[in-house]
Amino acid sequence: MASHIMLLSLLALTCSVGVLAFEPSPLQDFCVADSNSSALVNGKGCKDPKLAESKDFSFSGLHLPGNTSNFLGSNVTPVNVAQVLGLNTLGVSIARIDFAPWGLNPPHYHPRASEILTVLEGTLHVGFVTSNPENRLISKVLQKGMFFVFPMGLIHFQRNVGYGNAIGMAAFGSQNPGAVTIANAVFGSNLPIPSEVLTTAFQVNKSVVDFLQTKF
Ligand SMILES: *[C@@H]1O[C@H](CO)[C@@H](O)[C@H](O)[C@H]1NC(C)=O
Ligand SMILES: *[C@@H]1O[C@H](CO)[C@@H](O)[C@H](O)[C@H]1NC(C)=O
Ligand SMILES: *[C@@H]1O[C@H](CO)[C@@H](O)[C@H](O)[C@H]1NC(C)=O
C-alpha cells in the first residue's frame, strides 16, 4: 500500500514537473507585451487589452531576402515576441532563414522550443544530435516543400547544399525560443571561459584555444 502511494506521488510529481517545463495555457485572449508594465506575466507585462491593435499582431517584410554577405553565408530574420508584441504568452513564433550557396546556419539549440523547418526554396542538409550518451546524428537532405523537426534543446544545423540560394521558414513552439550558438557560447563568451577548461575539454593546446577565441 505504502509503495503504491509512493509510486503515485512519484508519478504525480513527474507529471507536474513535465507540465511546469512548458508555457502554461493562457487564461485570457492575449497579452500584448508592454515593457513599461510593472505587472509581469511569464517575462513580460500586458498592455491594456482595450488598447491592443492590429499592428501588435502583425509583421511585414518576410518576402524580402536577408543579407547573407557574412562568413556563414546565412541570415536569420526572427519574428518572435521581440518583433511582434502580441505573440507574448501565445507559445508560437517563426523565422525566415536565407542561405547563400553553401551557406550554413551553424550548430545551435533553442532552450525553450522545438522547431519545424520548411524548405521554401533550394536544398538543405539538416540534422540534430541526440543527447548523451548516444550523441547520434539524425540528418537528412531536404528539397523544396519538405520539412524537418528539431526537438527542443537539441543541437542542430542547416546547410545549403544546392548551387542557388535557399530559403527556410522555421516555426517555433515558443514566442521566445532563444538561441545558443555553440561556437559563440563556448569560444566567445563574455567573460571568456578559462583556457584550462577549454584545453582539457577539447583535448587541444592553448594556442588552438586562443586561436578559436579570437574567431568569436
Ligand atoms: C513605454 O514608455 C515610453 C516612455 O513613456 C513610451 O515612449 C513607450 O511607447 C512605452 N512603451 C509601450 C509599449 O507602451
Ligand atoms: C550586407 O552586409 C554586408 C556586410 O555587413 C554589407 O557590407 C552590405 O552592404 C550589406 N548589403 C545590403 C544590401 O544591405
Ligand atoms: C598546438 O597544437 C597544434 C595542433 O595540433 C600544433 O600545430 C601546434 O604546434 C601546437 N602548439 C604547441 C605550442 O604545442
Task: Note down, in words, how this protein is organized.
By secondary structure, the protein is of the alpha+beta class. The protein has a domain at 56-178: Sandwich (Jelly Rolls). It has four helices and 13 strands. Strands 4-5-12-7-10 form a five-stranded antiparallel beta sheet, with no helix packed on it. Strands 9-8-11-6-13 form a five-stranded antiparallel beta sheet. α3 packs across α4. The radius of gyration is 21 Å and the shape is globular. It starts with a helix and ends with a helix. The model is unreliable at 10-20 (pLDDT under 50). One 2-acetamido-2-deoxy-beta-D-glucopyranose (NAG) binds at residues 67, 69. One 2-acetamido-2-deoxy-beta-D-glucopyranose binds at residues 34-36.
Please provide the count of β strands. 13
Query: Secondary-structure element sequence?
Result: HEEEEEEEEEEEEEHHH
Distance between the termini: 58 Å
**Rg value:** 21 Å
CATH architecture of the domain at 56-178: Sandwich
Q: Helical stretch count?
A: 4
The proportion of residues forming helix, as a percent range, comes to: 10-25%
Order of neighbouring strands in the sheet with most strands: 4-5-12-7-10
Would you state the CATH class of the domain at 56-178? Mainly Beta
Family: Belongs to the germin family.
Main location: secreted
GO molecular function, one term: manganese ion binding
Signal peptide: 1-21
